[in-house]
Write a structure and sequence with these properties.
Helices cover 19% and strands 28% of the residues. It is α+β, with helices and mostly antiparallel strands and 331 residues long. It is globular and about 65 Å long.
């Protein structure tokens, strides 16, 4: 397969992984427009039942210019109209996303929480829908504003640290910027690296071929650093698979996924970066450790055994953190 054909196949896998189809129109004064935005959408998308538009606006995914649109908005050209159409009926959207359970909260106090985010659930409200996300679930459950200073990709499961107070949010923003937060990920790849440890420092940049993709930069780019440790290997269906522990020192978009690809070991189930086809992305945010400035102690939280994905079943898991305080304790 040629390089172009390979990328076309990769794009097809990427598009198939999306929750919605995307529609966009640039409208000007020469267009004959309907009086309301929902009437205009009904005209342009006649395959969608007219009666479903109120539910679609409530779900989110309709935009007029840069702002979310509401039912009854008027169209004043020139303007841009966008719609993210769910790939299932609006009535079934709730069945598509993981449900919330209080057991997902692994640690909580007045200032912060560490939660388990299941794969398939956005960390924060997404552009194609606003109703289902870890942030919104927590705000509904706790009855307060929740800030997410760090996020996981929708396809990634694992622990997420969030702030529940303004003072903690300010601190965590600084802690992430200064790399005080320690994170551990587990990834399963095909093959066995020849190395036991590896540090990848390839800068990252946007891939111009698709807005969601990143790639290693040939010059410039954003600095990125990931430490890898080789874990155990197993044989499955005649193929060697290896568990890698990844420690991202920086926090760039898709950093671990792109660095695994660069090192020659794309993550199993990664449709974006050449991973072996699989229903789930075999990448887990395994543990987080941070200094809690208002309790004056270190907090370390691992994914509980009952929440570990099935693909980890054949491996002996590494110990994420020791009992001694972090060497990165802020001054």
């Amino acid at each position: 397969m040629s390089t172009d054909d390979d990328f076309k196949a990769r794009l097809a896998r990427i598009e198939a992984s999306f929750f919605s189809s995307y529609w966009r129109w640039e409208l000007d004064s020469s267009d004959e427009l309907e009086p309301t935005i929902e009437a205009e959408l009904a005209k342009r998308l006649p395959h969608i039942p007219v009666s479903s538009w109120p539910a679609r606006f409530e779900l989110g995914g309709v935009y007029l210019g840069a702002d979310p649109a509401v039912l009854g908005d008027k169209l004043t050209p020139p303007c841009r109209l966008e719609y993210y159409e769910p790939r299932m009926s609006v009535e079934r959207v709730a069945d598509f996303y993981p449900r919330f359970s209080p057991e997902m909260i692994l640690f909580v106090d007045d200032d912060c929480a560490v939660v388990f985010k299941p794969a398939g659930l956005p960390t924060t409200p997404a552009r194609d829908q606003q109703r289902y996300s870890m942030q919104r679930y927590l705000e509904q459950h706790l009855g307060q504003v929740v800030h997410m200073p760090s996020r996981l990709d929708t396809a990634v499961s694992g622990v997420v640290l969030c702030s529940l107070s303004s003072r903690m949010n300010r601190y965590l923003q600084k802690a992430y910027d200064r790399r005080w937060i320690e994170k551990r990920y587990l990834a399963e790849v095909i093959g066995m690296p020849s190395w036991n440890t590896k540090v990848c420092e390839q800068p990252l940049e946007r891939d111009p071929r698709h807005p969601i993709l990143r790639r290693t930069a040939t010059s410039g780019g954003e600095s990125a650093r990931t430490r890898f440790f080789r874990g155990g290997s197993i044989e499955l269906n005649g193929t060697t698979r290896t568990l890698l522990q990844a420690e991202p020192v920086t926090g760039r978009t898709h950093q671990i996924r792109v660095h695994c690809l660069y090192e020659g070991f794309p993550i199993i189930g990664d449709p974006y970066y050449g991973g072996l086809g699989c229903q789930d992305l075999h990448l887990l945010s395994y543990a987080v450790k941070f200094f809690h400035p208002f309790r004056q102690e270190h907090i370390a939280v691992n994914v509980p055994a009952e929440s570990l994905p099935q693909w980890l079943g054949g491996y002996e898991l590494p110990k994420a953190f020791g009992v001694t305080p972090s060497s990165q304790e802020p001054a």
